């Protein structure tokens, strides 16, 4: 699939490059500006000062990170780009210890759209902004269950991987709750990505790398160009193409090894492994633009936006074949492996039904003269898979966003900003090497089982006015405004074969095996909107004491209205030492995607057997039949306190404690459905399709309350080595500890909504301690060096009734950048995890049977060492 579309993507890259390079030249020509623009600063991406004034968490102009009342981290693009990964998710996690991500293979769409956690909270409790404007979510709702870790279960968040690092001027990470300032989702904090605003120059980057194992080859090429737009305006465009191959770090499954010994490993998927544990194949195009056009001295028009077209491909669990002694065939191919598992009357009833439909029984069952019915429960498609089959799962993701507005300042010093935005994320799932077992030999082997869209629109009006007064030491910064948002989640039915219930569906299963397609009953458009107004005040009460107060009222169509507030303060005892503190409330409204997702997929049980799992909307017949009630918004109360010490211009130290209490957290309630149980009968009575085959049913509920607390330490020292150049020592440490305070019970029972295993994962699966130590040395000999150490504390996971404990690890990154051609050409040679460290081996008996060599919950993955070479040319 990826290779077939490579020509299309390459053509798109060339077209985008042409427009990037030619359009600015054309704009300059028509405006009759000088043909030779001023040269861009050398290595302009690295020139961003770590002390640049921040715009996140405050609406006062001129605050530096150490002057803010809340902790804000500022990261340069060079920190992001001097890494082996082409994924912004990995890049940010490698330099921000409070930000964590994991790799989830064989986990449906979660293998492609990776969730990330700020302060150990779910991905959708962090608000993501681009140039200060809310970024739209991915269409993926994370539904992963065991064995893929459940820390992020149920979240629907932004896809960080669609943001190319070449488009970024800097990243600001606000580690503080800010719902009163920004609205829903800002419980853990805010990540604000500021785009390039250079008005001249062109930069071309190319990077290639691989793992020490020789797989996972990664190509990345990017182009960034800037041009003047009007008098003092700019237009900046970035286009990035990437191509990453899969990795494989598993071992052969026990049953796959037995099949390979009997029929040959060449007939067993993935060269005898059965299934692959590792990164997926990926390829795509990512682009951003950023522009501003001054109309006069007081009014400007602006706009920015993005477009991405990416494809990914991974695999599912291995399905065993028919006819291998000692290996039980997959139930989609054969149900009565001993010839007696299905009673002859059942087989005869199926034959009668098939004949009554005017169909040929030989297309759905296998003739057997020894059976009284003349047939056996053997799917006649089985000869296509002498070594078994492993469904290949992929996704094509297209994404766009546009934000356009006007801003200015009146004669009375009132700054204003009005804007409109629209963003959409569209995912089309694809599956090959699979079957719809209910269609017998007539089943196709490729499907399009899902078509999901997340569409968001919004309008903002923001105002800031410095209220001059004689009461306080400085004017009161009065910020106020209003926001309207609308989210629409669209589900389109998959192709018919992906969801069709064929003549033998009750025997072999329904729909595309591994990931059942969305049926017409599941399709629809589901929307909700919100309206909000806010007031944000900030001033210096006296010369050294700053106070901020914010309040926000928000009304959401599907939920109760809410009022959230925030109080912040900072007191400077001296020019070098200050203390700061905040207390605030927050909220997050469940998304239309979470409320309306209908998904039937396959998971493994504690014996390694594959069982169908259905996730249903909370208002569906299936959920209501099992006792579901409407969900409410999540709410939080958090506070933080810390100090800032900056004794001179070259050293700064900040230490902040935080505590976040979240109530009514959204969780997937999973109910086991045994054959013949009251739960199964309730589903049958409700008319749920395929109810006889479902063994687990999930739906969203308000499941539990939790508290996360921790300490963040940031120390930066800038050294002058005289004739040996300069250096920056950067040390960051985050301690985060989550505790589940209470768990709701399933109505009418004493069974908790989330079991002890998920509670243990929430509390222990992410490391409590993480450190990042970075040293950047800029020498006077046209060569710069970067060394980084990442520390990951020990962690635990609880899967299939077994608790695994994994030790701490240090990972080391090194890179050297050489400058040529008057500093226009830069060549970087580097490596991530240069000592090739791996997590401890997996100890879970079920996972090792399934071929997992390393823990799937590893916070730094399990690819081992990676190297890369990068060249950048700018003119």
Folded structure, characterized:
- It is a single chain.
- This protein is mostly beta strands.
- It has two domains: 6-334 and 383-874, Beta Barrel (Maltoporin, Chain A); 344-378, no CATH class.
- The chain is 12% helix and 44% strand.
- The strands form five sheets. The chain has a 22-stranded antiparallel beta barrel. The protein has a five-stranded mixed β-sheet with strand order 1-6-7-4-5. A two-stranded antiparallel sheet has the order 2-3.
- The longest helix has 25 residues, at 6-30.
- The radius of gyration is 28 Å and the shape is globular.
- The model is unreliable at 6-48 (pLDDT under 50).
- It holds the Pfam family Plug.
Going by CATH, the homologous superfamily of the largest domain would be TonB-dependent receptor, beta-barrel domain
Distance between the termini: 37 Å
How many strand elements? 36
**CATH fold field value of the largest domain:** Maltoporin, Chain A
Structural class: mainly beta
Rg from alpha-carbon coordinates: 28 Å
Number of helical segments with 4 or more residues = 13
CATH architecture of the largest domain: Beta Barrel
CATH class of the largest domain: Mainly Beta
Residues in helices, as a percent range: 10-25%
Q: What count of structural domains? A: 2
Q: What is the percentage of strand-forming residues?
A: 35-45%
Global outline:
globular
Stretches where pLDDT is under 50 for at least 5 consecutive residues are 6-48
Reported for the largest beta sheet, the result is:
22 strands, antiparallel, barrel
Question: How does the SSE layout of this entry go?
Answer:
Elements: H1 6-30, E1 72-75, H2 77-81, H3 88-93, E2 99-101, E3 116-118, E4 126-130, E5 133-134, E6 168-174, H4 179-182, E7 189-195, E8 202-211, E9 218-229, E10 233-244, H5 254-263, E11 281-294, E12 299-315, H6 344-356, E13 366-367, E14 375-376, E15 392-409, E16 415-432, E17 446-467, E18 476-492, H7 496-499, H8 505-508, E19 515-516, E20 524-542, E21 545-556, E22 562-572, E23 577-588, H9 592-596, E24 599-604, E25 610-615, H10 621-625, E26 634-648, E27 651-672, H11 678-685, E28 696-720, E29 726-743, H12 756-764, E30 769-778, E31 783-792, E32 795-799, E33 802-806, E34 809-820, E35 825-832, H13 845-849, E36 866-874
Parallel strand pairs: 4-7, 25-28
Antiparallel strand pairs: 1-6, 2-3, 4-5, 6-7, 8-9, 8-36, 9-10, 10-11, 11-12, 12-15, 13-14, 15-16, 16-17, 17-18, 18-20, 19-24, 20-21, 21-22, 22-23, 23-26, 24-25, 26-27, 27-28, 28-29, 29-30, 30-31, 31-34, 32-33, 34-35, 35-36
Main location: membrane
Domain TonB-dependent receptor-like beta-barrel: 360-834
Pfam family, one: Plug
